[in-house]
Amino acid sequence: MKVNSSICAVLGLGAALLTPMANAQTPAVPASVPGKVAVIDIQAAIAQTNDGKKAGADMKTKFTPKQDELQKKQRDLEAMQEQLRKGQNTMSEDARQKMIREIDQKTNSLKRDGDDFNQDVQQETQRIMGELYPKIITVLNKFSTENGYAVVLDISSQQTPILFAASSIDITKEIINLYDKTSSFAAPSAQPKMTTPPAAPKPVVK
């Protein structure tokens, strides 16, 4: 049960959290604009803005208690599995079957809770994305128009197969700085760590 990778950019909790919304509208570039080209890592840009860092810190606060609870359940389940493994040759068949049923129940319960956790994180991520992505695109469009860029390619998108881009045409940092000038939040003192649920429990050998 891994957290969906789309969570990572907006939160700044790992590599990158969000993918741009497919239906976001970008104004057409006038034909008279010179042919300058730039690239941007839009996921990193969102994650590194003050708003993105604040959203990441808020999500960490919101979801860490549930994450800790899931991790404890995972440890308890693994301890029970180890107990069964060590004692299955000496315990009675009734006791063995009872423990197997209990492990199965706990495994299924942990999987459901982990799935619910993933869904909650993803929904919160999408809500944040709906707020931050249009804002940063507005900043990007204004910057590109004022600086004569005809094309800006998103190097964080799998739909944009960029094989090479010189660092001199990367405008990610400029967009972050411009965005933060309009933000009401100051930069957090520390970057939050990634929120992840526990790994899927190992199957019980019957």
Return the string of H and E elements: HEHHHEH
- Helix tally? 5
On the 0-100 scale, what is the average pLDDT?
Answer: 79
Can you count the beta strands? 2
State the separation between the terminal residues, measured CA to CA: 23 Å
| Poorly predicted tracts of residues | 1-33, 191-206
In the residues, how many domains can be counted?
A: 1
* Rg (CA only): 23 Å
Write the layout of secondary structure elements.
Elements: H1 8-11, E1 36-40, H2 42-48, H3 50-87, H4 93-146, E2 149-154, H5 172-181
Parallel strand pairs: 1-2
Helix pairs in contact: 2-5, 3-4, 4-5
Describe the protein in words.
It is a single chain. The radius of gyration is 23 Å and the shape is elongated. It has a two-stranded parallel ribbon with strand order 1-2. The protein has 5 helices and 2 strands, in the order αβαααβα. It has one domain (5-181): Skp domain (Protein Binding, DinI Protein, Chain A, 2-Layer Sandwich). Helix 4 packs across helix 5 (172-181). The chain is mostly helical. Mean pLDDT is 79; it is low at 1-33 and 191-206. The two termini are 23 Å apart. The relative contact order is 0.26.
Which short descriptors sum up this protein?
mainly alpha, 55% helix, disordered N terminus, disordered C terminus, two-stranded parallel sheet, 206 residues, single chain
